């Protein structure tokens, strides 16, 4: 791939352009907002001038509601040898292109499974896709050259290609991406009118659950409007669990011993099914989740503290597998949770204590 055209310079489009440009591809940028394309160009993502001849690959990175129209316009203009989109839904866009009478041999629907709560070119990074799955949905009509160009794009962005059927993809993201966004928003919405005393008690659990609730509502309206059926199906199943859980909790309030026993069994069931589902979420390098031990350390909120604790762990010969930070309310300190292999816990705890850290196991 020598040349590319990125249509839409938001987070995903600009990040892909930055990755391509950093690896020697001549990238042209266009956007319905010229100022946004100029911003992306100023960041080093390419040039905001249109190509004078067809490029190797056109990457359409616009909201799902506009993707088919943008693709059709690019195809009719003969702007590239191959065309793909990077929207989060796939089946509907392909059907729209069929309705518009487009030649689908030069098109491939894709979806990089990466993103951030922030949007726009200023949130973009060249390494956004590194190590992340990038779904490709070829059909028997897809030209081999276009598939190869898509695979090259994925490789240049250092992502991991995953081949799927378009509709199977839409059902999958409804479960692992779109429904979690709505559930996170629903939980966060409970905080809007909550008493300030309750909000001050927010800990890591509520922060984890509501993190993605900070996402741009306009972006998610576009995504959910393009995949409503599969998301509604998953939410209906969640609603069934919610109803059963509410009944179980009400039963625990009862004076009747049998009802309380039923309530306990109902809560136990949903918690254990949650354990089983969480255990299937891929862990490090896509492998099965490892059973790491957690070492908790009090850490000051000063520059260099994180670097110091990681360096001390390195000197102890221990690899930090994962990390979380919980900030202390009203204090210039917090708790850092270091996830390590179980066999390394004792030696790391001893090493950190020797270096003056307040370790809590």
UniProtKB/TrEMBL annotation:
Keywords: Amino-acid biosynthesis, Aromatic amino acid biosynthesis, NAD, Oxidoreductase, Tyrosine biosynthesis. Residues 2-282 form the Prephenate/arogenate dehydrogenase domain. Residues 294-361 form the ACT domain. The keyword Oxidoreductase applies. Pathway: Amino-acid biosynthesis; L-tyrosine biosynthesis; (4-hydroxyphenyl)pyruvate from prephenate (NAD(+) route): step 1/1. It is an enzyme of class 1 (oxidoreductase). GO terms for molecular function: prephenate dehydrogenase (NAD+) activity. It comes from the Bacteria. InterPro entries: 6-PGluconate_DH-like_C_sf (IPR008927), ACT-like_dom_sf (IPR045865), ACT_dom (IPR002912), NAD(P)-bd_dom_sf (IPR036291), PDH_C (IPR046825), PDH_N (IPR046826), Preph/Arog_dehydrog (IPR050812), Prephen_DH (IPR003099). It catalyses: prephenate + NAD(+) = 3-(4-hydroxyphenyl)pyruvate + CO2 + NADH. NCBIfam families: PRK06545.2-1, PRK06545.2-3, PRK06545.2-4. This is Prephenate dehydrogenase. It comes from Streptomyces gamaensis.
């Amino acid at each position: 791939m020598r040349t590319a055209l990125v249509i839409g310079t938001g987070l995903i489009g600009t990040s892909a352009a930055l990755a391509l440009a950093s690896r020697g591809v001549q990238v042209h940028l266009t956007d319905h907002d010229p100022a946004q394309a100029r911003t992306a160009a100023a960041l080093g993502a390419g040039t905001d001038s249109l190509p004078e001849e067809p490029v190797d690959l056109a990457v359409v990175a616009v909201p799902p509601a506009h993707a088919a129209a943008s693709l059709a316009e690019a195809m009719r203009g003969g702007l590239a040898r191959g065309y793909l989109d990077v929207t989060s839904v796939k089946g509907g866009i392909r059907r729209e292109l069929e309705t518009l009478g487009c030649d689908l041999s030069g098109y491939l629907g894709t979806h990089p499974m990466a993103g951030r709560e922030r949007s726009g070119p200023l949130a973009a990074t060249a390494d956004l896709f590194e190590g992340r799955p990038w779904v490709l949905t070829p059909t028997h009509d897809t030209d081999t050259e276009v598939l190869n160009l898509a695979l090259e794009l994925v490789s240049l962005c250092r992502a991991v290609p995953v081949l799927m059927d378009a509709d199977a993809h839409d059902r999958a993201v409804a479960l692992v991406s779109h429904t979690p966004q709505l559930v996170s928003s629903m939980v966060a919405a409970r905080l809007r009118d909550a008493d300030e005393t309750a909000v001050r008690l927010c800990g890591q659990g509520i922060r984890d659950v509501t993190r993605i609730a900070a996402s741009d509502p306009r972006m998610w309206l576009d995504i959910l409007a393009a995949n409503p059926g599969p998301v509604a199906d998953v939410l209906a199943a969640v609603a069934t669990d919610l109803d059963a859980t509410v009944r179980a909790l009400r039963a625990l309030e009862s004076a009747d011993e049998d009802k309380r026993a039923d309530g306990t069994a109902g809560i136990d069931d949903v918690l254990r099914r949650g354990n089983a589902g969480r255990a299937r979420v891929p862990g490090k390098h896509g492998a099965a989740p490892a059973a790491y031990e957690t070492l908790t350390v009090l850490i000051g909120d000063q520059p260099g503290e994180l670097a110091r604790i990681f360096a001390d762990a390195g000197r102890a010969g221990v690899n930090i597998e994962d990390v979380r930070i919980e900030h202390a309310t009203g204090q210039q300190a917090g708790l850092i949770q270091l996830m390590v292999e179980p066999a390394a816990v004792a030696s790391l705890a001893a090493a950190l204590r020797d270096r003056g850290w307040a370790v809590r196991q």
